[in-house]
Amino acid sequence: MTPAPGKRPSQRVEHGGDLSAIRARFPDAPEPWIDLSTGINPVPYPMPMLSAEAWTRLPTPAQEEALIAAAARRYGVPDPATIVAAPGTQALIQTLPRLLPPSRVAILGPTYEEHEVCWRRQGHEVSTVTDPDQAANAEVAVVVNPDNPRGRLLAPDELPSPSKLLVVDEAFIDLLAPACSLAGALPPRTVVLRSFGKTYGLAGLRLGFAIAGHELAEKLRGEFGPWAVSGPALEIGRAALDDDAWLSATAERLTVDRQRLDEILIEAGFVILGGTPLFCLARHPEAPAMVERLGRRGIHVRSFRQQPTWLRFGLPGSGDAFERLGACFND
Question: Does the predicted model carry a pTM greater than 0.85?
Fold first, then answer.
């Protein structure tokens, strides 16, 4: 979580998905572990057959152009030249602060901590605000929309309008209505970040996109240089982004699974605070004890130092995983 305004976070940022640490903490837990600590789709896109050249040759401009065309169609972007492909959204988050002179940056939070760490690291003056109106005087504003971990979604006309740049991280917007995104009608001085790995369940592929005005897009391409995205990522990303049927079926499944997750948590005494189709944020007065209970049974969830009653649950990926989760609260 993001620290209080004015407080500099440590350079070590906590993330979900670290099963090595949780296994060390609960060495007697049953295997296999169920990792609910991330917002990654637990049922990934089926891997297509890859060409041998994807592994043995440098990626070609034509392959990147095909990926960009698929992304433009998927995200409703009218001009493919405004899309930059990168080896994961994290790489874009780290690069953007290097492209602007020291600025006053307001981050709408609490949210993904990497944004604050990366802007501070490059000498920017960073504050965390809890309301978009509090970013009115910022030169740069950063909004995760919908946000993580609460799932708060701002309409386009509710977003701040900073004087230099608005960064909108749309990592969890793929499964929402297209009108929720800025990608198809990009305002001036705005960059939109889109994650591939979360919705498609292929976080290890490391693929993400920026949608920006032509000048900023060119600067980003220059920072990454040639061959920024691997050959396998180019082929898999293009195939997945072009697969309308898979995405539609996935959205339906996730809706059902999210409802099932909420019901389990409510029955166990949690209060649902929010979330997205890929995760649920819940409150429990004994959340640390719940972490212990789940950990002893081989289930990893996301806790928050600064909000000790909050837990974030990703979606179980199978009926057996749902049953194991429910059983933890019934014994």
Answer: yes
